[in-house]
């Protein structure tokens, strides 16, 4: 049991310059005894309002140096403070505020919300067990207008999809990775590096791009690049929900439409999921 959608803004000041972290937290506990469920005995139950207040107090006292560290702080607090807690899980996601710039100069106290992917993390721990930390990015929508196709697929009497060697690749990504054993990581730096890997593997070189023969191959390229460049990542899951675009037939309007006007096909949409990890991790 626990408290969901604990939303708050943490403001930090350094002289005249101000910094913000707006987050949403979900904190769940499992107690050593299920007596509140079986007997209606609430003597071990930490009220969910107390859970909410603890999260807010930790934000006040510790600040939020990174989402991962804040989730770890929540787990550590419940494990060290309450002997009746057998398991704790903290989920934290961030509102994507970015500092405003005017003529290249960063503003000291103004921000803009930029929907270019939502950062999140999870930390969970069992009593006498290891602390496990996951992180990720969701609602990251990417598009490339060429250098994508889909050919040579299996066909039977139900197949109506034509082969395409030049199409729009557009989709919303969900990426989640595991750090394995957590050490003194710079979580902010690692998250930014992984995000850069995702964008690079999706788009390819800026002057020419890189051909994608399928959504599945693009997903795998993202995972392989992350694992090759970020040794702290042990396992990475990528989900791609793709959006199709159809060319509008303008013959009846007396116009030739050479893929200049297209309409999105909202539903149904395609989806692919892949989880990839290091061999040493799975053997362990």
UniProtKB/TrEMBL annotation:
Q: What class of enzyme is it?
A: oxidoreductase
E.C. number:
1.7.3.3
Sites binding 5-hydroxyisourate sit at: 48-49, 150, 167, 216, 242
Fetch the InterPro entries from UniProt. Answer: Uricase
Which Pfam families is this protein grouped with?
A: Uricase
Query: Its Gene Ontology biological processes?
Result: purine nucleobase catabolic process; urate catabolic process
Main localisation: other
Entry's Gene Ontology cellular component terms? peroxisome
Enzymatic reactions: urate + O2 + H2O = 5-hydroxyisourate + H2O2
Statement: the UniProt record of this protein carries the keyword Ribosomal protein: no
Molecular function terms, GO-annotated: urate oxidase activity
Localization of this protein: Peroxisome
Name the protein family: Belongs to the uricase family.
Function recorded in the entry: Catalyzes the oxidation of uric acid to 5-hydroxyisourate, which is further processed to form (S)-allantoin.
NCBIfam families from the UniProt entry: urate_oxi (TIGR03383)
Q: What name appears for this protein in its UniProt entry?
A: Uricase
């Amino acid at each position: 049991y626990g408290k969901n959608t604990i939303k708050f803004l943490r403001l930090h000041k350094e002289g005249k310059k101000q910094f913000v972290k707006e987050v949403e937290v979900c904190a769940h506990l499992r107690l050593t005894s299920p007596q509140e469920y079986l007997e209606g005995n609430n003597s071990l139950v930490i009220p969910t309002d107390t859970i909410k207040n603890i999260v807010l107090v930790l934000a006040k006292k510790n600040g939020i140096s990174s989402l991962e560290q804040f989730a770890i702080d929540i787990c550590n607090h419940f494990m060290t403070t309450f002997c009746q807690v057998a398991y704790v899980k903290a989920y934290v996601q961030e509102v994507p505020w970015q500092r405003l710039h005017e003529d290249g100069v960063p503003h000291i106290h103004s921000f803009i919300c930029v929907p270019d992917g939502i950062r999140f993390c999870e930390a969970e721990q069992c009593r006498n067990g290891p602390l496990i930390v996951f992180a990720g990015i969701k609602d990251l929508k990417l598009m490339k207008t060429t250098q994508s196709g889909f050919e040579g697929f299996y066909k039977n009497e139900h197949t109506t999809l034509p082969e395409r060697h030049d199409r729009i690749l557009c989709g919303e990504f969900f990426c989640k990775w595991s750090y394995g054993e957590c050490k003194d990581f710079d979580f902010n730096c690692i998250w930014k590096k992984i995000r850069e890997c995702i964008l690079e593997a999706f788009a390819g070189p800026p002057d020419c791009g890189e051909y994608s023969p399928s959504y599945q191959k693009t997903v795998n390229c993202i995972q392989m690049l992350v694992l090759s460049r970020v040794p702290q990542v042990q396992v990475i899951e990528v989900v791609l929900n793709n959006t199709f675009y159809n060319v509008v037939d303008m013959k009846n309007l007396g116009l030739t439409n050479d893929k200049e006007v297209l309409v999105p096909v909202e539903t149904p949409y395609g989806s692919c999921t892949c989880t990839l990890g290091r061999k040493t991790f799975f053997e362990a």
